[in-house]
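task queued by scheduler; priority normal; single chain, no ligands, no partner chains; default sampling; output format set to structure tokens
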Amino acid sequence: MPGDIKLPISLAIATVNTPLLTIFSTDDKLTEYKSMLPETFKSLDKDYIKVLFSYFLLIHLVILGLNYKYVSIKLVGLVIALTIIDTVISFMMEKKYPIKGKKTTVEIWRSPRKYILGILVFLLSFVIFVL
């Protein structure tokens, strides 16, 4: 793969390949549990955001480490920005546009919502890193 395009593609693939993006949409019991818990006691939303942020930070740091030849201030800034953007957009899409009525993993993977964030991450990282 050409050097300029491999970083945006790896960031996009890392975003698409996580099951964390559909966790509340696909697990009815978890959604039920979330609605039963009082917000003052325990917020699953806050825990979900922490898990998403931790995942994206870890995977982006691994990608950054694998591309150590290209490390620059611009790239580190891009990784930090993408970690925040991935977390916020993932959480917002899970809340506003849940994937409902999908029974199998194949049906979930066919949902266009699963790929929106990956495409956005690819375009953003391509514009910032390559251009």
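post-processing summary
- The chain has a mean pLDDT of 81.
- The helical segments are 3-16, 23-26, 28-36, 44-66, 73-96, 105-109, 113-130.
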